[in-house]
Structure formats: C-alpha cells, structure tokens
Design goal:
Layout: E1 2-8, H1 16-19, H2 27-42, E2 47-53, E3 60-62, E4 67-69, E5 78-80, H3 93-104, E6 112-117, H4 123-134, E7 140-145, H5 164-176, H6 180-184, H7 188-193, H8 199-209, E8 216-222, E9 229-234
Parallel strand pairs: 1-7, 2-6, 2-7
Antiparallel strand pairs: 1-9, 3-6, 4-5, 8-9
Length: 235
C-alpha cells in the first residue's frame, strides 16, 4: 500500500556541481526536495521506489545500488541508488538526480529501487504500473521525478507555447492536492507537445495512490528556466 510520496523535478542543475556558479538559482527547490524526502522517511516505508522519465534504452527497473553519473553534463560525479549490488545499466539522468537527492539527505529509511518510464506510455498503463508497485509491500513510498512543460518562455527549451501555463497550473493543483483522477486526466498528447517529462511518472503515482486516501502539499512551484518545476509531498 502506498503510504507516502514525494514529487521532485529532475533537472541535473539541481546538483550543485552541475549547476556550478548558478547553483543558488535552484537552492529553494533543493530545500523543498529535502523537506519532501523527510515526509517519506517519516512514513516508515518498507520499500522506496523511485520513478522517473527515461529514454528508450533506459526504460525498465534498476535494482538497489545501481550507479549513475553526471559525466555527460561535464561533471565527474558518480551516484548510487541506495545500497546494493546494482546492475549493469547506468541510471538515466532523472534517477541519477534522485540518487543525488537521496545521498544528499542521507536516506536510510528503506531499501531503494528505480523505475525508468517512457514518454509514450499511455495513462492506463502508467496507472496499472503504479497499482502493482503499491501492492508490492505493506508500506510503499514513491519518489517521483519529473518536470512540467518546457515552453513557458521564449528562451525555454521548447520555446513559448500559450498552453504551457495552464497545463502546469493544473498539474501543480493536482500534485498539491493529491488528486489521482486529475493526474490521470492530464492529456498525454498535449504533455508531449509541451515537453512535459513528468506526465508519465505522475500518472504512475496516480495509479499507486488510488484508494490510499493521502493528503498533498505543494512545497515549491516555479519555472526559472521556462520549465515548470514542482515539489510536492503526499502523506
């Protein structure tokens, strides 16, 4: 059963070594992520599953101890997803950021595993995956990594799209109020057009949270680089 969830953005710029001189720009987001992870630890889970967007070659499960790095972003810094033997595949960027967040907060509350999900995964399959995760242990927690639209400003990665602000506002409302139905109602085609990498992971969370009766709090909401970033805690 799902007992708690944390939702965090996944830009590698969250990692100070990657952001370098611009690290201060996401300091508030880092603090909010730490607060959300504190909610997870307080829930005393038996299992923590980290869910994040992944490209075609990186989709699937990642056992405890799986390693990743930020070398592709010009930083020779390695991370591990919890403790364990790991696997052969390196973590996708979203799960590497999650691993850094967990290391940064000295996570020791429960064993950790990862799941990389693909952008095309339709809502019902996301929800079914979430239900399976929730049923896998008596007390399951989720760390859900994902960004909102990347089209909030002219300088955003996806340029300016007038639909982006409303999409992000609805996503923020759903995440902040722990509304699984609203998350499942997010339009996958629109999310793809707006480059919203969090849509599929959020819908995995929605499936896991069905019937759990969790309450939500939105801890952070901003679009500093024209990309919607949200931090939420469900408990």
């Amino acid at each position: 059963m799902l007992v708690a969830a944390a939702v965090c953005p996944c830009p590698p710029l969250l990692v100070p070594a990657v952001a370098a001189g611009a690290a201060f720009e996401l300091a508030e987001a880092r603090t909010a992520c730490s607060d959300a992870l504190g909610v997870l630890a307080a829930s005393r889970p038996d299992r923590l599953v980290v869910v994040g967007p992944a490209g075609e070659g990186a989709r699937g499960t990642y056992p405890a101890g799986s390693a990743g790095s930020f070398a592709s972003f010009g930083v020779e810094q390695s991370v591990r997803l919890g403790s364990g033997p790991g696997g052969d595949r390196p973590l996708p960027a979203s799960l590497a950021v999650a691993a850094w967040l967990l290391e940064h907060t000295d996570w020791a509350a429960a064993p950790v595993e990862g799941l990389g999900v693909g952008e095309p995964l339709e809502a019902e399959r996301c929800a079914a995956t979430g239900r399976e995760i929730a049923a896998s242990a008596d007390r399951v927690a989720l760390l859900v990594m994902g960004d909102g639209s990347a089209c909030r400003t002219l300088k955003a990665p996806g340029y300016l799209d007038d639909r982006a602000e409303a999409f992000d506002a609805e996503a923020a409302r759903a995440l902040g109020t722990a509304d699984p139905a609203a998350l499942l109602a997010l339009d996958a085609e629109l999310a793809y057009a707006l480059k919203a990498a969090g849509r599929a992971p959020w819908q995995v969370l929605a499936g896991a949270a069905e019937g759990a009766g969790l309450a939500g709090r939105l801890l952070y909401e901003d679009a500093p680089y024209g990309v919607g970033y949200f931090v939420a805690a469900w408990s």
